[in-house]
Amino acid sequence: MRRYFEWADEIKHLSEEQVEELYQRYLNGEKTAELAVEYNISANVRSLLKVLPPIISKDLACPYCDLPMWVRRHARGTPVSIRKPFKCVRCEHYHFAPGNYGRHRLCNCIECYKVRQQEVAAQALRDRSELEKRYGVTSPPVPYASLSFVQKLVLLALLDDGGAAGAERIAPLDASTRSEYLAPSEESSEEWVKKLYECGALLVDLGSDIKAFDRASGCLINDFSAVRWLPNVALEPSVQCTRDALYLALYQELSGAVQPAWKSELYALMFSLARDESIQYIQVLTNEVNFVFSAQGRAETVVGQLLQDFSVSHLYYFARLAVKNAAHFYATGNSKGRNHAANTIPGNMLGTAQDALARNWRKTAYRDSRVPQSALHRLLYDVVLKDSGAGFSKSPGIYWRDELVPQFFSGALFGSDLAGHLQLFCRECDSANIDASMDKMTLQMMCYDCATVSKFRAIEDLID
Which has fewest Cβ within 10 Å: 52, 294, 385, 424? Predict the structure, then answer.
């Protein structure tokens, strides 16, 4: 075999076979001094490894130079994990053997870097091709008039993404340019966006981060917060409007007079935002005391009930007191564990609220920066209702009954609705301030005064 390295004078009298035999005997534990005497190596040599030539691999070849690869001889007892890798005799390419659990270290030579970049570029082209196949077909724009109140409000919040003027794309929910969350929780934020996408008002921008899609299932969306969108709304029949035109139309309508048709959605959104913000604050407090809050279902029911008479600010106080009592319950050893203690929080909040109602006292709390105001909250109370701060400081139930209904939804405005014609009333509180909807088999009523939802089902489906 061709010699790629100059041999030391001390071993030039040895053949390649003798060198390999010497090295193997050294690895097997024979003494260096005895080997030096046997192979006629000068006694001045203190370390055989310093005079032995590197190992030239007979099996490995550089994929770029087509030349053998070499490695310095390791000392006996050296673990495999820290031995030097083989290197090309000409270039800087290294060969790394697979490590533990199949881990493989990558070579950082120029040629390997170029190959990886080419692979990344090729994969990106394949990914974009998959995205174009699934999302490249443009669907007809959704008529602006067909959008509901909440859909319009969510669209307005999405368009306010801090992006450059004139850009048609809508930034993802997790974009750094957004200064506020869409909704109080990530789950509800993604759910609002998903509904707009499913109704066709949003289209996937083909320049979205590929990580937002599941390539194994044909690029289905698996992270709605990372997708970049395009608005797909028509202000004129079948003509997709620009982003700026849509923003202007949305803002002009939503900042104008409150419309009677918004009544049901407005009521539900007020309570939904307040409930989500309150639940999120409870979770923040329980995390502080290392509790896992598993009673969220019960808490949502209790919070929804309390919001009829108390504000989010009041509920913050109830939550702080309940979590403090739960932590004490656990610390004293009276509970059966952290989960048991955490499960007492909703009932504790309800008990404190009932005492506040009975004795007519109220205690408020300041907004916590760990539960920031969402974009939907800001737009609803600042732009639509023009009552900044009401969503935190006023009880949604009292605010609705005492201020919003008399101001925007008086009985005269609804004399011709379904509930008015049929003279329907709430089965719990006898209020006529209700909303009714029905299909062929079910009649559903929601009371705006006590929040009771009643469903009535037909006992027989008559054939027309």
Answer: 294
